[in-house]
Specification:
single chain
């Protein structure tokens, strides 16, 4: 699970471990990964830490290869880590070619690279589940998050294509599109009092999401409960996208 030392990724890892999975905690810093892995072990689960920066192909390949060599294979892959170094309009001065390339490289291309490294092992084991954490931003336009949202829309399409290409091997691929969740990654949004109040007012469930609203959903997609679900994007946003306008 990439990006699993905090936020949504950590919640997914913890819920997977509670469901009986052996989990690999991965993010850029070894210390952060080991802290989460140890917490899972202390709670009775099984976990190991393998640091990997999603911008580095060789580190992603090491993550996959080390997991396979240590535990014999991978049944579930969760691509959660993402980058968003720019907050502003696509026509803004800060929107450089380098920013665009970084977002697409980290959020789309390296997801595909990691998946292509892992999928043959899944096929050899008789199947598996790939889960990509996208965003409801991939379903809507936004004047300040346009490039990031483009990458998240691409992740939804990636899940659909993977479902077609790997379905014959009993490998399922789906995306989860969270709404605004209280994570460090989205702190600039949910700590904005005016924005938070507006979202809470128009969201049918009346609140901003928590990481634990997403963790169990990933477990469902990875388990027998999701055995006939592939190529889909499951939205978890408290009903916000059902609202006509906000």
């Amino acid at each position: 699970m990439t990006g699993s030392s905090r936020g949504i990724g950590r919640s997914i890892a913890e819920h997977m471990a509670r469901a009986g999975a052996r989990v690999v905690i991965s993010s850029r810093r070894t210390e952060s990964c080991e802290q989460v892995a140890q917490a899972i072990r202390d709670a009775g689960g099984e976990a190991m830490a393998v640091a990997a920066n999603i911008s580095k192909r060789e580190q992603l390949f090491h993550l996959a290869d080390h997991t396979i060599s240590t535990w014999g294979g991978i049944d579930v892959l969760v691509c959660n880590a993402a980058s968003n170094p720019y907050f502003g309009p696509m026509a803004g001065e800060g929107m450089t070619d380098e920013i665009f390339d970084k977002v697409m490289h980290n959020n789309v291309l390296n997801n595909l690279r990691l998946i292509n490294r892992v999928a043959p092992s899944m096929k050899a084991r008789g199947g598996g589940a790939i889960i990509i954490i996208s965003s409801v931003g991939g379903l809507r336009g936004d004047g300040l998050l346009g490039i990031y949202n483009m990458s998240k829309a691409a992740d939804m399409q990636l899940a659909r294509n993977l479902a077609i290409e790997w379905g014959h091997a009993n490998i399922r691929a789906n995306a989860i599109a969270p709404g605004l969740i209280k994570t460090d990654f989205a702190r600039a949004l949910w700590t904005n009092p005016e924005l938070a109040a507006r979202l809470e007012q128009v969201t049918p469930l009346g609140r901003i999401g928590d990481p634990d609203d997403i963790g169990p959903l990933a477990v469902m997609l990875a388990s027998r409960a999701g055995a006939f679900i592939t190529g889909q994007t499951l939205v978890a946003d408290g009903g916000l996208t059902a609202v006509a306008a906000w």
